[in-house]
Design goal:
471 residues; alpha/beta; 5-stranded mixed beta sheet; 17 helices; 14 strands; DNA damage; metal ion binding; Ura-DNA_glyco_family4
Length: 471
């Protein structure tokens, strides 16, 4: 077994790896070890031994980038793994650079984690300004990166902070910029040598500003923790505020949002109807851009009614189903086919009837790969009544056949029960209403006889509607 000891950085490994390739050393025959150098404080790092005489091997630009990024992944076995990747490439095995390969997949995963750590460090490093009497550096920061990305981040800040002097300390190393030159120190002792818990006059102003822009009514805790992971909070000035702000939001601050002084005022309660308490919304110009409720967010499209404007009978269902949502037409799925059969038995031509639903967007919940129907809430039925009223006015049908409890409630309110209306003809404004079951209710019957009784009730209601219009 050949022991190769290198400094813990990419350039040292690259020089040693090229030399090992020149000697045809297999990955299994090398024991890679690292030795932490001990240069003077913020001294220059020495060049890797033998780098000038190292042989060359041509690799793709993508593989070179992956190797360089993965070299910063925190894993004591990374140098051995990277050499195995380079060895396979040198032997002509190009699949090692593919994410479909086992080693390739690991290489991509390591590089991705390092790039994420680079992004996080840029986003979550917080500099504090020191008092001028303390001298350089002007700004200091403490950060705990997930991988060895300090050198990369230091170059980023050096290019963007002008001639300001600063220090970034981490548990394993530190970076310092004196206004002209960037220096790195890799000794672990630096973590305790440079205290960064220094007061900053601007920090109090920032904390006040952060409190003022934090809106508990719009708080989404999962999104907050996704974009600002909890592990970074301790390094952020505002991190000390977040737990209390979240707790206040859970405890009721959401109801008054940022207007806490308004929420604390004592006033006389005023009784109003629920519909009058709703915020005014601009009337949508078309059903396609309706945003009166949130059902449009997960629906493929709105499903308008279909049929002749002069139809004397309107069939009113609950909402579109899965197939209706995809096709954009009402009653084209299994329930629609059952309704079509019932209409034929009742002698009611489909082309002479107006078909629509109380709710125009498909409300569903996932169940594996399927989208299962979910009954609309009363507020969603009320929001969609805007479109139903237009249809009742434009179509002018004499008789409405409501299919199911939701359709009945869309006309008479949620207290109207299907059991109390089946078999009756009920006036509604200048129209007559005949209530019956929704075809999907028949489809859910496990017993064939029960299904036939439900279908027969639907046929009977359709026949009653025909009688009422005198045809």
């Amino acid at each position: 077994m050949r022991v190769i000891i290198i400094d813990d950085d990419f350039d040292a490994w690259r020089a040693a790896a090229l030399d090992a390739l020149a000697q045809q050393l297999t990955p299994e025959s090398i024991d890679w070890r690292t030795a932490q150098a001990e240069p003077a404080l913020f001294g220059e790092a020495a060049s890797p031994a033998g780098a000038a005489d190292a042989p060359h091997i041509r690799v793709s630009r993508e593989l070179a980038s992956l190797l360089k990024d993965a070299a910063h992944f925190r894993d004591p076995r990374r140098w051995s793994f990277l050499y195995r990747v380079l060895w396979r490439w040198a032997q002509g095995d190009r699949s090692v650079a593919s994410p479909a390969d086992e080693d390739g997949a690991r290489l991509y995963k390591m590089a991705k984690a390092v790039r994420r750590a680079q992004h996080d460090m840029i986003a979550y490093v917080r500099f504090r300004q020191r008092e001028a009497s303390l001298g350089a550096p002007e700004y200091v920061a403490w950060y705990e990166p997930g991988h060895d990305v300090l050198a990369w981040a230091a170059e980023h800040f050096a290019a963007r902070m002008g001639r300001s002097t600063w220090l970034i300390a981490t548990p394993d190393a530190a970076a310092m910029f004196d206004g002209e030159r960037l220096q790195l120190e890799r000794r672990r002792a630096l973590a305790s040598d440079h205290a960064v818990d220094t007061p900053d006059a601007a920090e109090a102003l920032w904390m006040t500003y952060y409190r003022s822009i934090f809106n508990p009514a719009r708080l989404n805790e999962s999104a907050l923790e996704q974009h600002m992971p909890v592990r970074f909070w301790k390094g952020l000035p505002e991190g000390a505020l977040i737990p209390q702000l979240v707790s206040d939001a859970r405890g009721g601050a959401r109801r008054v949002a940022q207007a806490q002084s308004v929420g604390a005022l004592v006033g006389k309660p005023v009784q109003v109807e629920a519909q009058d308490a709703q915020p005014e919304r601009d009337a949508p110009t078309s059903l396609d851009n309706c945003r009166r409720c949130d059902l449009w967010r997960n629906a493929t499209q709105a499903v308008p009614g279909a049929g002749p404007s002069g139809a004397r009978i309107m069939l009113l269902g609950e909402q579109p189903g899965d197939q209706e949502d995809l096709k954009g037409e009402p009653f084209v799925g299994p329930a629609g086919q059952l309704l079509h059969d019932a209409m034929q038995r009742a002698g009611m031509p489909r082309e002479q009837v107006y078909l629509t639903n109380a709710v125009k967007h498909f409300k569903w919940e996932p169940r594996g790969k399927r989208r299962l129907h979910k009954t609309p809430a009363q507020q969603e039925v009320q929001a969609c009544s805007y479109w139903l009223e237009q249809e009742l006015h434009d179509v002018g049908a004499r008789v409405i056949v409501t299919l199911g409890a939701t359709a009945l409630a869309a006309l008479f309110g949620r207290r109207a029960t299907l059991a109390a209306h089946i078999g009756r003809v009920v006036p509604y404004r200048d129209k007559l209403v005949v209530a019956t079951y929704h075809p999907s209710y028949a489809l859910r019957q496990n017993d064939e006889a029960a299904r036939e009784r439900t279908v027969a009730a639907i046929v009977e209601a359709l026949e009653r509607a025909r009688e009422l219009i005198g045809s």
